[in-house]
Amino acid sequence: MPLITAARAYLVDLEVETVRTDALQTFVKQETLFVEIDTDDGLTGTGYSYTIGTGGRATLSMLRDHLIPLLPGLDAASTETVWRTLFLHTKATTVGVITALALAAVDTAIWDLKSRREGLPLWQVAGGHRPEVPLYDTEGGWLQLSVDELVRGAAASRDAGWRGVKVKIGKPDPHEDLERLVAVRSVIGPGMDLMVDANQSLTSADAIRRAHILEPVDLFWIEEPLPAEDVAGHERLAAATPTPIAVGESIYSVGQFREYLQRGAAGIVQVDVARIGGITPWLKVAHLAEAFNVEVCPHFLMELHVSLTAAVPNGRYVEHIPQLRAITTNRIEIRDGVAVAPTAPGLGIEWDPDAVDDRRVA
Ligand code: MG
User: Fold this and answer.
1) Catalytic site residue 299?
2) Which of 204, 294, 301, 335 has its CA 20 to 30 A from that of 247?
């Protein structure tokens, strides 16, 4: 068994590739937590997780002070053992986002090692359903964009072959949201999917009202309409509108997903591999959703999520939102709006060590 001999963690600040504003926040920078793990069979695995601008140094402290010291001597091939060992050690701070992000940085490094050791790409090591996944585009739909800019973005997405586009909502007047969506729908036609994202900005009653106002544009889903802890509100909304409710980017444990699914409060699961604590729990959420006949369309991190979505039978869509191009030397291959899972063993991400070092802040 391949024993872990050493591990290290560091923080890299990565500039955003485009201005991204939603109803509640702006993506300031990608604080990128890296973990490297060496094993006694001569391999090194690299994993990562991220924040959109806050909490990076707290996550780094969690890694350096509490998780990294536990790794030497553990069997790197036993993904569950490694994950459970770290999870139980941090039990007092779970379920919590800092701990989940720290666990994910370690767990993705463990899966990088596992994939390299088996000589197979991640999409196959993680399950291997099919090698290609459709993409939808988020980059043309930010809330700060004007109607003209939305229309230009939608036309570009259509011409690029994306299967769908996502537009942020949450303007003070929902009829302004509707006007923006009507303009986008007129560009993409009835054949492309149109998603909206409220980023947890609505109240339970207002979300029901707004969902009805937006029904004429035939939404594929309404994402994060309410604060993530308001499961009952999502349940009521799901019962009141034909539009599927998508949640997941602000959910940090498998059990919380179970609660949503049991109550019929989620029609689409958007589990995020960093925020759920790594690939090990990500796969459990995807399989749990499958048991409820619900599809998975993960949040952000397309560089990892193409492989994971390709691994499971209920993977429907990956969000086109590239964010690693400044520090990597390879790109996800995209053919006519469909992403091809990387074929190299490992996570399929080729880091540019000089570009990473240039941005290292801790
Ligand atoms: Mg979202």
Assistant:
1) yes
2) 335
Q: Work out the number of other CB atoms within 10 angstroms of the CB of residue 55.
A: 16
Q: Which of 114, 299, 305, 320 is catalytic?
A: 299
- pLDDT computed for residue 23 by the predictor: 83
Which CATH superfamily, name and number, covers 124-340?
A: Enolase-like C-terminal domain (3.20.20.120)
User: Residue ranges per domain, the chain?
Assistant: 4-119+353-358, 124-340
CA of 200 to the centre of ligand 1 (A): 9
Tell me how far CA of residue 170 lies from CA of 18, 121, 178, 184, 226, in angstroms: 20, 40, 10, 16, 11
- At residue 53, the 3 state secondary structure works out as coil
- CA–centroid distance, 318 to ligand 1, in Å, is 12
State the distance from the centre of ligand 1 to the C-alpha of 324, rounded, in angstroms. 18
Beta bridge partners of 26: 21
Which 8-state DSSP code applies to residue 275? T
- Distance in Å, CA 89 to ligand 1 centroid: 31
Distance 52 CA to ligand 1 centre (A): 12
pLDDT in tens, 224-267: 999 999 999 999 999 999 999 999 999 999 999 999 999 999 99
The CA-based dihedral angle spanning residues 327, 329, 334, 335, taken in that order and rounded to the nearest 10 degrees: 160
End-to-end Cα spacing for the chain: 32
Q: Residue 2 half-sphere exposure, CB side, CA atoms within 13 Å?
A: 21
Domain with residues 4-119+353-358, CATH architecture: 2-Layer Sandwich (3.30)
Query: What is the per-residue pLDDT across 278-322, written as a single tens digit (0 to 9) for each?
Result: 999 999 999 999 999 999 999 999 999 999 999 999 999 999 988
From the list 168, 234, 305, 320, the catalytic residue is: 168
**Measured between alpha carbons, how far is residue 243 from residues 84, 119, 189, 194, 208 in Å?**
37, 42, 18, 11, 11
